[in-house]
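fwd from M.: "can u put these together and see what the complex looks like"

so here's what she sent:
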Amino acid sequence: MGRSLDRRGFLGCLWGLLAAVLCLPEAMAVTKEYQLMSVILWRLAQFVEWPASAFASPDSPLIIAVLGENPFGTALELATRGETARGRKIVIGAQASDAIDRCHILFVSSSEKSRFKDILRSVSGKHILTVSDGEGFSRAGGMVDLFIDSGRAAMRVNLRVADAAGLAFDARVLRMAEVVK
Amino acid sequence: MMCGGGSLRGRIRTVILLTSITVLLVNAIAFLIYEVVSLRAQMVRNLSTLAAVIADNCAAPLAFNVPATAQEILAALKAEPDIVSAVLYASDQSVFAQFPDSLPPSQMTPPDAAGYRFESGALLLFQPVLQEGKSIGLLSMHASLRSIFDRAWNYGIIATVILAAAILLAFVLSDILQRRISNPIFALTTGANRISTRGDYSIRVPKLTNDELGAFTDSFNAMVAQIQSDQDRLREQANLLNLSHDAIIVRDTRGLITFWSRGAVEMYGFSESEALGKAARDLLHTVFPAEGQDPNDHVLQTGRWDGELRHTRKDGSKMFVASRWSLVRNSDGSPKAVLQSNTDITQKIQFQEELERLVQERTVKLRETVGELEAFSYSVSHDMRSPLRAMHGYARVLLADYKGRLDEVAIKYLERIMRAAIRLDVLVQDILAYSKVAKSEFTLQPIDLEQLLTDLLATRPELQPPSATVTFISPLHKVFAHEAYLTQCFTNLLGNAVKFVPPGVHPQVAIRGEMHDNHILVWIEDNGIGIDPSHQDRIFEIFGRVHPDKAYSGTGIGLAIVKKAVQRMNGEVGVISEVGKGSRFWLKLRRSES
């Protein structure tokens, strides 16, 4: 399974590269909204502060994991290539469920809408920023709702949950976000 | 006084004012420059901080692509009056947000390198928006410098007001301060002016300060005192000069009159003002002596000149002056002036000329008279001789032819007629001799006295023994004389010497010569009856007899002939005698060397 995943990952990368460098129509297969969202997602890492205990070592990478159906295609990998957040490399983690334990940002796809509560319960008490594009995520105890409103990215932040997880949001982000108590 | 010293006062005031204004202006400008520079620096600082804050705030909107938020953030700039516009560019240099909202793209400042620059009255500032060390956008801000200009303008107005007030203050202060400098100088110039206009050297300048001006005042006063004493002395001298009746004139080296004494005014009729500054030579039409050196050259060479000049008075009359010139020299020896003292000798010269003319006239008249007289006496004497001879001749013939028929008384009368005729004839001959001596022209020549006397004695028996003894002592020297007249003189003198002796005395005559510098004195000493001193002048006059006819015969003309002859030979004759002690006659004749 590991091999098939590697092959797919390799192919995905290859396709992503092809889409980004040679074959724009292929890359355009991912919607414009999710291309934008992929940028917002990784940039959130730059505006959120994790406790030091969230990382194994000072030069440990920041891991982003996607749970459920991946709406970004290769866009997230392309967007984060070479980028850093708080001096750490950004790594897109595997979509396997064990990755949830090691990731710092967990994107829960709207495809998992029905399991929001279960997923959130499993990560509670961990220093993981939970983000979703699904309706009602923050109400269900998620930290950030991401959505695209008439071509512009927008977010809703549940500060209480974030505080409980030991995560601190940059005030500048909160200025643009809708805050849920 | 205000007019006279205005320039100095003004100059001191100008100096003070200019200095103050310059200092104030430099100060104000320096401060203004400093102010503008520091204001600009402050503005850059303030805006940089503001830009940094805004750029930081805009990082999230850029990161999350929320232009509205960025727009909101930029809108806060309206609180800053200096900010004209601001534009937030995304990393692709597209406009992400702008301030104000309505900013048209034409007025947007295009992106540039990070930093700031001043451009046409504006400050342009470019602040990159950084996220994770990466530029995700650029904030450009355009700030007006109006506030700086306004402040500079206000400052300029305030500085101008302060400057004006300071100038006013400096003006008032300069008026007070310059008095301390100008008042002593005014005192000096006023004093000097008064001295020069009035010529009053008794004026002294008050000493107002103890500084260099005070010292200057002291030395000025000392100088004036020196001039005063010199002036007094000069005035005394001038008064002395003016007392003189002589004309005293001083001429400078160009010949122009610089002093004209009162005596000159009186002598020439020109007043002082008419004479001063004129050339003396032209004014007086001076005529210099025809001979000799030009007096002007002479006085320059020797320092003085004396001579007679002819001048013309103001009224045109001519005059003569005895003029004495003296050269006055400068301390370095160069000629400075000629001092001239003229004495009026017109009258003297006129008298002299008049006298000469008169003498000439009278001499001519006298000569005529004498000539006539001599011609008359000669002809009379000459014409008298033939009747005399007739009388003498006929009386002798009568006596010889009629001797037997005449009694003794008739013979005695005839003899008396004959003697009288002879005497008259001798007299006539003497008068003829005298007039001949007086009249005839002759020349003097050297004559040996010994030779002459030896010849004379040899031809005169009455001068030889036994009648008389005449001796002479050699040498008798040589004299300048006329031989015939000198023989006549000695004949008469020796004749008298042997004749006027007391009865029964043998006449003895001694002749000796005395040599003097340029004449010979010949003494003829006898043992005769002598002459009373009261008669001694008279004996040399014509007919100056002192003895009655009866005692000693003679015509009374002999010594007159001697005197006349000696005079005509440029000599003198005299006598030293006492009655009864003989006579010593002397002849003074010009000595001859050869």
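replying to her w this: Chain B has 13 helices and 17 strands.
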